[in-house]
């Protein structure tokens, strides 16, 4: 039966080539655009090298200080002082990784300028973030405490600074007019990963400005790794209890707010201010869904339009089948199946198209070090979109067709 | 004639409904595209208001120096500026606030004059600021040494802020309030597009930095003479990093920062444009296909008309005008939504932008509809009455 429908579908597709082209064009491009957008989204939010443990991590990138009377308001990343004194001492997390947001420094190699983005971290950072060490190893607690001038650099920095030297551990790198001994080289991280990206990693004790800073605001972020996913709410409530007890200089601020969130929520919070993070994520999902719906609306209406014309063209076939006893339901199912076949055909072309677009994006280094790919989430989403698309554009024409009277249908041509 | 056309469309309202919905949504999408395009193009056409070639931004992120005495701070930073300015490759140097041209940071608050309050961008620069960025002075003068003893702090405002507060009069010498502090206007400059080529006009005020403000400054702009190369840049870098041992120093070129800043505006616009372009191709193909199909269904009717003596041109005209009526219904429906934007002042864009965008979107949709109807119309005109009538 299904094989028969398939044969009919192919025959119909080949009869009106122009209509087939329009349908396939619409479906494949819509899907290609959706897949590309999903790939970007997926790249931004799903766990990836080196931040593999996102499912049991909580993130902190911003706290809010307010003076309610003076209406002053200060929102931004906490300081190293705040992290060490309040966040790192929490009991429930297994490990707390502390690192600064990367900051640019310049270095000049053979009259060529090199921008090296530096990140100051603690030692737990190397245990929470699972970097691939191409050579060497991370700095130890002793290095940190002693303030040793050691650095872990990225593969890209190694290539830019040392050229094709086979191994660079033990050699010195000069930036910001200071010299550091390289003790490790890690694989590159794309710049879109705020918590992980840098060209050079240094023990936080080398940050002279930050060691002297006793205020709560600066440019540090923290990742709180839980022992298991079950511990996440406990960490959040411990943090909430802790932040209420943070002493404040009442002349400046009389209120401090902040919370540790999942990866996506830690960013939506920046736009959402102090509101609940779950609500912000929900709102994001609603906005994205509205966009996707509106985007798919036009191609779908178009497809419905074309399908209606196509099906009406086949009214004599419908008439004959009805006259021989096929029910409206059977016919409707046939047309929906036909339409699904068409949509899947378009889907395959769409996947190929998006693959081409993504390779161009990867090749153009629009996001350096990022490798966007069609992974299973993306593919799953596109298959789902195919089905929705096929049903959406198939149901209406099928319904109209099934209401047609045998006599009209037969008479029409 | 028109009434007759409407009747024809109305009689097939079921068939035409989907087509009209499609044109309606296309109109709305084109309205959005044109609004963004017109808005950005109008901003792009305005002059920059300053020069940025050969200007470098040198940032130093140092530790908190507020515990140093003001005198030693002044001495330290003035010596630093002199040391940089003395290099033969340097034309001028000015300390600036963090929101220097093409940077990501912005700084604004309300300023009042009389009872009026206006949201204003705040910039700071020292007396050498005009030598570095060369803003276009419209009246008055930039602040300088002569303001040292003045009772009220001197400020320079831009054209947009002047229009808000003192339309049609001279602003020089007038007093405004920045927070609780009174300031006196010494000059008016042309609006500067310091946040990229597509920045909109915003009221701005330029305040004088100098003694007392060094503790919170962390950037200077350096105008270099043509021919200053990477070799000089690395020497400059070493010099500054040597003087400020505890600071993180970075040198950036404004020309490069401008490209980055512009791309932040352009990339979303390009993505949006590509998506809209795709949707429109989709719609036009669909429109074309459906019209073509309906024409072939109406062969008998058209054949009859030709037999009655209608010329080929008349047939084409009928098909095209039917499509125009169809489009008009959709566009008018779309207009009801689109005019809400200028009426309710959504997104705070100038009303003119919306109106131009509406006109362009309507023209575009009509042109698209006519183009899609022409070929099927010509096809219809070529129907031979004998063949068409014979078929039925």
Structure, briefly:
The complex is a heterodimer of chains A (about 425) and B (about 400). By secondary structure, chain A is α+β, with helices and mostly antiparallel strands.
Molecular structure report:
The complex is a heterodimer of chains A (413) and B (392). Chain A has helices at 2-15, 17-45, 80-87, 124-128, 141-146, 155-162, 208-212, 232-244, 263-272, 277-313, 315-323, 328-364, 376-402, 406-411, and strands at residues 57-60, 63-67, 72-76, 95-100, 103-109, 112-121, 133-136, 150-154, 172-175, 178-186, 200-203, 220-225, 255-257. Chain A is of the alpha+beta class. Chain A has two domains: 1-47 and 282-411, no CATH class; 63-273, no CATH class. In chain A, strands 5, 6, 7, 8, 9, 10 and 11 form a seven-stranded mixed beta sheet that branches. In chain A, strand 5 and strand 6 form a beta hairpin. The longest helix of chain A is centred in the last third of the chain and has 37 residues, at 277-313. Chain A is elongated and about 95 Å long. Chain A starts with a helix and ends with a helix. Chain B is of the alpha+beta class and 392 residues long. Chain B folds into two domains: 1-46 and 261-389, no CATH class; 64-245, no CATH class. Chain B has helices at 2-11, 13-45, 70-85, 129-133, 159-165, 230-243, 254-297, 299-307, 312-338, 340-344, 351-381, 385-391; strands at 55-61, 90-96, 108-113, 116-125, 137-140, 153-158, 175-178, 181-189, 204-208, 219-224, 248-253. In chain B, the strands form two sheets. A six-stranded mixed β-barrel of chain B has the order 3-4-9-6-8-7. In chain B, a hairpin with a 2-residue loop joins strand 3 and strand 4. The longest helix of chain B has 44 residues, at 254-297. The A-B interface holds A 18-19, 22, 25-26, 29-30, 33, 103-106, 108, 111-113, 115, 118, 176-177, 208-209, 212-213, 215, 295, 297-299, 301-306, 308-309, 313 and B 18-19, 21-22, 25-26, 29, 61-64, 229-231, 233-234, 237-238, 241-242, 246-251, 275, 278-279, 281-283, 285-286, 289-290, 292-294. Chain A: It is found in: Cell membrane. Chain A: It is a multi-pass membrane protein. Chain A: GO terms for molecular function: transmembrane transporter activity. Chain A: Residues 290-405 form the ABC3 transporter permease C-terminal domain. Chain A: Keywords: Cell membrane, Membrane, Transmembrane, Transmembrane helix.
